[in-house]
Write a structure and sequence with these properties.
With 317 residues, this protein is mostly beta strands. It has one helix and 29 strands. The chain has a domain of 96 residues.
């Protein structure tokens, strides 16, 4: 019994049957041929009432030397392809669309289902895969969860605990679920993250460098290094707890909260900050290069060295 196209789900893998597509270049206004091979596979990435969007795993071979694959745009037998890596297939019964299912879901989805069935123990590595979403019944990950270099944009709301590290490096993710606890490090470097959830707890280091984030939530707890380099952050929450280093190099930070305690070093170099708060405690070095800070409050306790202070008006006992 054949699987109906209307039963497609996001994450399904399909195979394009061999054939020739005749198209018209929108750049050169000349016809060209594109050949579909048996090896061309695609993952379903989006479904609506009238069409399904798929992402090709392999490039389609273009039978002309005059065209760049990324400029190709053509339509044939109900399949319109806007780029060589994605296409839309309308839901038309008996339309003769040359597509068939080879797996009801992707290898990644089957891997996740088996992981949950086994009790969500150990690591779950999905890095460098075309995974776009995780199932709602993934409520915890016992070990590390690696989603780096994937197109994933969000995590399930029910996911509240990652026992190991959570790696989201170089993904388009924009938010995290509330009340999330990460036992190891949380890597959000080079993502589209704009905010963090309330009551986020990170046991290791938290890397937010090179992200568009502008503020941090209350009650944020970081057990290791907090890296905010090259962000637009302007202030820190009053009750922030960081047991490791705090790096604010090349940010827009203008003020630190009173009674801030930093477990390691504090790097404020290349920032517009002009003064330090009362009762500041830094257990490592304090870096002030290329700032306008000229003095250290007498109530401050800096246990390491001070670098970059323009005018020394404080000395360590």
């Amino acid at each position: 019994m054949k699987t109906k196209i209307t039963k497609l789900q996001v994450g399904d893998v399909i195979k394009l049957k061999p054939g020739i597509i005749l198209g018209l270049s929108t750049v050169y206004s000349k016809p060209f041929y594109s050949k579909l091979h048996e090896k061309n596979k695609a993952e379903v990435t989006k479904i609506n009432k009238s069409s399904v969007t798929i992402k090709l795993f392999d490039d389609i071979s273009i039978c002309t030397k005059q065209l760049s694959a990324y400029w190709a745009s053509f339509t044939h037998k109900g399949i319109s392809i806007s780029s060589i890596k994605s296409c839309r297939i309308p839901f038309i019964r008996n339309s003769g669309i040359k597509v068939k299912l080879i797996n009801f879901d992707s290898d990644e989805q089957r891997k996740i289902r088996q992981y949950i069935k086994n009790g969500s123990k150990g690591n779950l590595n999905l890095s460098n895969t075309p995974i776009t979403s995780l199932p709602d019944n993934l409520k915890q990950v016992g070990g590390n969860l690696n989603l780096s270099n994937t197109p994933i944009t969000s995590l399930p709301d029910n996911l509240t605990r990652v026992g190991g590290s959570l790696n989201l490096y170089n993904t388009p993710i924009t938010s995290l679920p509330d009340n999330l606890t990460v036992g190891g490090y949380l890597d959000l470097h080079n993502t589209k993250i704009t905010s963090l959830p309330d009551n986020l707890t990170v046991g290791g280091w938290l890397d937010l460098s090179n992200t568009p984030i502008t503020s941090l939530p209350d009650n944020l707890k970081v057990g290791g290094w907090l890296d905010l380099n090259n962000t637009k952050i302007t202030k820190l929450p009053d009750n922030l707890t960081v047991r490791g280093n705090v790096s604010l190099n090349n940010t827009k930070i203008t003020k630190l909260p009173d009674n801030l305690t930093v477990g390691g070093y504090l790097d404020l170099s290349y920032t517009p900050i002009t003064s330090l708060p009362d009762n500041l405690t830094v257990n490592g070095n304090l870096w002030l290069g290329n700032t306008k800070i000229t003095s250290i409050p007498t109530s401050a306790e800096i246990k390491g060295e001070i670098y970059g202070l323009k005018k020394q008006s404080w000395s360590k006992n």
